[in-house]
Amino acid sequence: MIEAIILWLGLLVFVSPKDPAPGLLHSKNEARNLECERLSVEEASRAHPGDVAPPGPRGDYYARSALVCTERLVRPGLRDARDEAILSTLDARSSELAAAADALRPELQGATWLVETYYPDPQVAAKIGFATKNALVFQGLRVSDRTPLLGAGDVQVITRMTPSDAYAAACRRYADNGSLGPDDVLLGVVSLDPRETALHAGLCQQGTWTWLR
Amino acid sequence: MNALRRVFAMALAVAFASGPALAADPLEAAQLAELDRVRTQVAGQVQLTAYDLLDELVLGWIQEPVFTTPTPVVLAGLTVPVGLGTGLQALLENHLGGLLTQNPGCNVQLSHCPSCTAVVVHSGPEGTVVSRGIDSPALLQELGSGGRKYALFVDVEAEGTWLVLRARMTELNPDLPIVWSRTLSHASSVPAMLRQPDDLKTVAEARQDYLAALESRGPLAVPVRIGVRAFAAPDGNTLFETDTFDTYDTTDTDTDTGLDTGGIGIAPPPFYWVQSGIELGMSDARAWISSFVLGYSVIPQAYQGLMGEVRFARLLTGNYRSLTRPDLYAFGGAAVMTVWGPATGSFTNNALNTDDILNQLEGDDPRAVFGTFQAGLDLRVGNRMGMSAFFEFLPSFRDSDNFGAYLSVFGLGIQSFGTEVTFWL
What we know:
The complex is a heterodimer of chains A (213) and B (425). With 213 residues, chain A is an alpha/beta fold.
């Protein structure tokens, strides 16, 4: 009889759902690397046909739901924590920024939008800029890949100013040297403090800098 | 001489001073090796998904072309997830190049423009600008003079459990307007579609192909099995501890010790079988299947046998047979066997004794016909090859002295254990 129980328990391994919680089969690190979402049976059977059986025509005999767990692509700890926090939610952040810019300044819909990112890591900065440009295009705005330029003397002066003054000064210089025309708007995506993961945004239009958030 | 001593002392000092640094080198190397290993592992998972996104990108251009006529496009930048290195970047660039070459219908002609991606220095009255060629207005004016050209930027990034591809197309003139952009995403839990570069398909078309492939073999298949059955020896038999062979064997004199081979039964030898027949899929995706096979077994001078076997199997790993992962079935069935030959004397209920063996030597080969019930597991790889293991119950020999039991399930002694390898024609 004991053998029969062992046999059936062995079969259960194949037919029972996998538990994502840390324990005998999963370490804590493996569990932390999962993002889980509880779905109704209808949603889960549509999203994962074959893995989750759809409810019967007369309903199920017991309440069911599905916990869908997905493994993160990049293991925690592989990238800098701040970069990871920003990159893992980049799509949501960039869409939110673009929507806010479009909604707060509806009169600028006919302008040409430029994007500049101020983030310590150039690789991450390029990705933030890329995502923001795509999000602005998705909003139906006219976007340019052009980069406004500052002279070497401007850079020397501006980098010695406090952040609150520096962005406004740079904006004035962009307008003065012709990098930003009257129909151009520069959306600046800024990381103000190395300890925070929030991204701030400001608009430069006709030499005037305005913080959006 | 003093100078020589000073040089020697300095060399010693340098050697001792550099001791900790030397000790740190292997650690650093190990850390770098671990980082490389992690990067390789992650890149291996990401690569196929990124390929899938590039396939989707080009497929989108085929279905809704950005340009009405074939247009030169410079691949101005392709960036990969932060932390995954340039190896993945090279793979993706090659894959995108292959896709664009094999799909001229997308109207995107990959154009070579080294000056676009190189760092250039431009000096003018307003100053000297050091930038990528693609950011230099002067260079762009020169490029634009030969007709309209465009630059393609592609970025792939791992965002939590999603791999996101962003692409934009920029016209190469001093205003650099973005004329097209797209964001595509792919969940890490979804397997890559592994499209053919020269035959890109939508997800719906690929799913239709998948279902067609699942059902393409029709309801009938022809399996060929090669298997072996071993029979439990009566020694250590927990089911038959009551000494029943005394009833039949009058020669037994030492049943307590079990050392008298004349009184203890002898299990039949292992039987090798070659079987073939038909397999019927009872549902479209082969979640339920049944099979009927005939088998033949022969070991010259020992035994021969014929058998017929029926099985019903249920897929345990999902509701659909998979083309990419192994499938596990549980099955139950019944078989009828007939065996004959000198080595089949144990297929009786009585313990084999000296008289039986002598009778066999005189040419009177034993023959037995019996039925079995079986249950087991069948692991199939791509429905081309399978491996199965099963237990069998032989009701005719439930009280036989020649059979033991491997285990007891609900009071039934499992007297036989078999393994098989199956190929499908």
